[in-house]
Specification:
single chain; seven-stranded mixed β-sheet; 5 helices; binds guanosine-5'-diphosphate
Length: about 210
């Protein structure tokens, strides 16, 4: 399941502009700073493949990378920029959701969740929307090498990634008919990198 070739193909503004060759694809999405670029670069074993600029406004694009000439990895804009104006945020929301609802070659959304911190409301809302709209989803927990230090008087601060992962799954259970598959990853230890690729290979062969 290794990646031999990865080519940037295009950035699309709307799902209608995405490549139309019918190859299966996987979309990566997550809160900004969740570790999406790091994961993308780590699974293709390349630095700086992700072209998405981090500045809000420049990230409003659906970026297609063709892998081994047979499938696509799709980099979607991060959500949850604290600095983005409300209007812009709604825009991102709409065009990503249009893509999820209409892109027939989308095999699974890979929702990236920071495994080093307790669940964030915006992540739970995102997972809920995907579940309620029956969009196939895989949860990728990132930063699973990292453990937040417990501060004085803080209740959740000292939780291990395993605890955050279990808590998150407990919280989203009700949104899904079947529990979404999940993988714990780290770009520091490279835990989970091969599993992500293997899982994508399995999904392509269904
Ligand atoms: P993006 O905004 O989602 O593309 O996030 P980046 O890939 O740029 O990562 C955001 C920050 O998290 C950077 O400072 C990374 O070095 C850090 N980071 C990313 N992945 C990991 C990880 O697996 N473990 C740790 N400890 N830090 C990470």
């Amino acid at each position: 399941a290794q990646i031999i070739q990865a080519d940037f193909v295009k950035s699309s503004v709307r799902f209608e502009d995405c490549p139309s060759d019918g190859l299966p694809e996987f979309a990566l999405v997550g809160r900004s700073n969740v570790g999406k670029s790091s994961l993308l670069n780590s699974i293709v074993r390349r630095k700086k493949l992700a072209l998405t600029s981090k500045k809000p406004g420049k990230t409003q694009l659906i970026n297609h990378f063709r892998i081994n000439d047979s499938w696509y990895l799709v980099d979607l804009p991060g959500y949850g920029y604290a600095s983005a104006p409300q209007e812009l945020r709604k825009d991102w929301d709409k065009f990503t959701k249009d893509y999820f609802l209409n892109r027939s070659t989308l095999v699974s959304v890979f929702l990236l969740i920071d495994g080093s911190i307790p669940a964030k409301k915006i992540d739970l809302e995102y997972a809920r929307w995907l579940g309620e709209n029956q969009i196939p989803m895989t949860i990728i927990f990132t930063k699973c090498d990292k453990r937040k230090k417990k501060k004085n008087g803080e209740k959740n601060g000292g939780k291990k990634p395993e605890d955050n992962v279990n808590d998150f799954q407990e919280l989203i259970r009700g949104y899904f008919e079947t529990v979404p598959p999940w993988i714990m990853t780290s770009n520091v230890t490279h835990e989970g990198r091969d599993e992500v690729l293997l899982h994508m290979a399995q999904l392509r062969n269904y």
